[in-house]
User: Which sequence fits this backbone?
């Protein structure tokens, strides 16, 4: 049996199991709190696993392993930024949001401000961030199709992406948050198992000597004549050729990674799926443990791929390096268990990677359709007059539409590294969402004008800077290769757009006299003590 | 608004109480400086990666260099801070928050 057939069988087993979960979850989903927040009845540990599932996306698994395999040390920077970012969420955001919000990020902002403009802004930014992130995941799916399923024809890839998209729509439309959370949990366990297994095999091959693995990686995949530089910073970011701009770009990337997580809508709504703020704290602690362990595994996977597969073969598989981890699974399996072992391991890792993309895409679709239905439809268009039933119907319809948009965008998939595309989504989230969230939780004087200008200011500056960066035109791997309209030298806008988001929020606030002392007292007391927070649904 | 409406003045009373101000101070005194500290520690690492490459490349054991060790220390510090925060919250925040919540819920019944 070939690895593609076996991979298909494993993947279809996962699909069957998760569809079963979705059917079960759809029977349990009756109220809006069930659909948006899984009835708020998940435990801290369950939600922690689901946080891991949402966060360990194709970008983390395929992208980071790929960057480490191709650029050594510089890929490691991603893992560190992605992990440290969780401290911002733990210390400043998770518990306070759980206490003061209901279903979406906008609930917290709209609490003490004029709801319609603030919800419109937050809804728009939620959808924009999610679509950026969706695009990254779908590019990952495209890169995998050829390698794992042996589908090389364009039509074949197209139909695979459409199939993945259709499945995810089914999860979200029928399963809601309950179904999606369980899909994340199953996937997180599978992914950790797969990554740990390959890591153990790789380390075992090198006698559990990390130094031996590193030197082999440097010799096999480092630049010829200077293999030592593979283990020091500067192969990809801030190379001497890029000069000062390259080094500033590195800082910009670092800022976006560390500040983006606490502004990602699909992560923020995870805090609503548990009964209390204490459970939200517990779930982030679990999440940090799982995610940290996972990134340590990807470090070995990346260097392992560099050592055992080698640069040339990785680049031949995918120019962005996204297939380094599956190629490593094939190679190490072959070396240790023979050809059949390699086939099985590749099939397993491939099926897990597909499951990962499917689950993360479902989480993103849920976040954006929830925001559309709850913020834009129910509160802006219907001015709070929509019934819960209508709201959930609209959420399901918008999941369908957003899913279709994601499929459409993914057909434009490019050969960018997936982790890099996700870094852009992080920059947009850190610029557009984080300033407004932090101000509204901690700044007494913050008001409607401030919130609206923080969101639009951060969002627009991030988007404009990306459009005129070397990523879109003029750079070596630009989206539009034939024209050059770039004037912004950095490929990540964070270092400019994040401070701009904060600045716009501050300026907007002081320019308006509006201030509601009673409402600030309420949100401050509620966020710190949990008075009047939304309760879990009892069936 | 679909959230429960309470008498706003109760919240203002609680907000002005010494106990709540104490809770707020305990929360902010721990989390704000810690946030500054771990962000600075992280940015130091990023800056060193950009401008102190010879230093990051110094080999400590075999092919394990300063850059890798500092990176792994970022993992260690993240785990430690998360653990320390949960201890701090359980010991000196949760008891006050629970007490205040019960009091307010009594008043607004």
Assistant:
């Amino acid at each position: 049996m070939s690895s593609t057939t076996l991979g298909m069988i494993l993947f279809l087993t996962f699909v069957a199991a998760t569809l079963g979960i979705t059917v079960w979850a759809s029977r349990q989903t009756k109220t809006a709190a069930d659909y948006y927040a899984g009835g708020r009845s998940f435990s801290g540990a369950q939600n922690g696993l689901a946080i891991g599932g949402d966060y360990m996306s194709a970008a983390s698994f395929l992208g980071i392993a790929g960057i480490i395999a191709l650029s050594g040390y510089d890929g490691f920077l991603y893992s560190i930024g992605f992990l440290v970012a969780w401290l911002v969420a733990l210390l400043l955001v998770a518990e306070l949001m759980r206490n003061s919000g209901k279903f979406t990020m906008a609930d917290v902002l709209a609490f003490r401000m004029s709801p319609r403009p603030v919800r419109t802004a937050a809804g728009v930014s939620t959808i924009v961030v999610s679509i950026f992130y969706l695009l990254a995941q779908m590019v990952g799916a495209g890169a995998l199709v050829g390698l794992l399923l042996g589908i090389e024809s364009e039509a074949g890839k197209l139909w695979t992406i459409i199939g993945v998209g259709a499945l995810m729509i089914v999860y979200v439309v029928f399963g809601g948050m309950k179904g999606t959370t369980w899909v994340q949990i199953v996937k997180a366990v599978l992914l950790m198992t797969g990554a740990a297994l390959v890591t153990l095999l790789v380390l075992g091959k090198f006698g559990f000597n990390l130094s031996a693995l590193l030197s082999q990686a440097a010799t096999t995949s480092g630049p010829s004549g200077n293999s030592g530089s593979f283990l020091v910073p500067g192969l990809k970011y801030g190379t001497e050729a890029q000069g000062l701009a390259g080094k500033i770009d590195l800082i910009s990337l670092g800022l976006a990674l560390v500040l983006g997580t606490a502004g990602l809508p699909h992560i923020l709504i995870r805090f609503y799926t548990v009964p209390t703020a204490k459970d939200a704290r517990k779930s982030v602690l679990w999440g940090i443990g799982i995610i940290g362990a996972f990134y340590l595994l990807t470090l070995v996977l990346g260097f392992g791929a560099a050592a055992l597969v080698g640069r040339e073969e990785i680049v031949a598989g995918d120019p962005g390096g996204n297939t380094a981890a599956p190629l490593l699974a094939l190679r190490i399996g072959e070396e240790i268990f023979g050809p059949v072992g390699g086939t099985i391991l590749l099939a397993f890792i491939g099926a897990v990677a597909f499951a990962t993309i499917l689950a993360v895409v479902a989480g993103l679709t849920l976040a954006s359709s929830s925001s559309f239905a709850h913020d834009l439809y129910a509160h802006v268009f219907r001015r709070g007059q929509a019934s819960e039933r209508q709201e959930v119907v609209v959420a399901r319809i918008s999941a369908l539409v957003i899913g279709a948009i994601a499929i459409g965008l993914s057909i434009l998939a490019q050969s960018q590294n997936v982790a890099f595309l996700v870094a852009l989504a992080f920059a947009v989230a850190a610029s557009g969402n984080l300033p407004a969230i932090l101000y509204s939780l901690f700044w007494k004087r913050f008001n409607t004008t401030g919130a609206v200008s923080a969101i639009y200011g951060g969002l627009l500056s991030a988007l404009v800077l990306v459009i005129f960066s070397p990523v879109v035109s003029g750079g070596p791997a630009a989206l539009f290769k034939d024209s050059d309209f770039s004037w912004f030298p950095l490929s990540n806008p964070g270092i400019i757009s994040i401070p701009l988001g904060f600045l716009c929020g501050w300026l907007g606030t002081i320019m308006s006299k509006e201030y509601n002392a009673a409402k600030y007292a309420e949100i401050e007391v509620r966020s710190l003590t949990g008075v009047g927070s939304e309760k879990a649904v009892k069936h | 608004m679909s959230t429960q409406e309470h008498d706003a003045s109760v919240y203002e009373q609680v907000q002005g109480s010494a106990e709540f101000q104490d809770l707020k101070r305990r929360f902010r005194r721990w989390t704000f400086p810690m946030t500054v500290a771990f962000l600075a520690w992280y940015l130091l690492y990023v800056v060193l990666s950009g401008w102190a490459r010879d230093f990051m490349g110094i080999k400590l054991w075999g092919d394990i260099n300063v850059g890798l060790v500092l990176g792994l220390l970022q993992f260690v510090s993240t785990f430690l801070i998360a653990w320390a925060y949960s201890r701090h919250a359980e010991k000196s925040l949760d008891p006050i928050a629970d007490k205040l919540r019960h009091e307010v819920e009594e008043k607004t019944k």
Summary: Chain A has one domain: 3-529. The mean pLDDT of chain A is 86. The two ends of chain A are 47 Å apart (CA to CA).
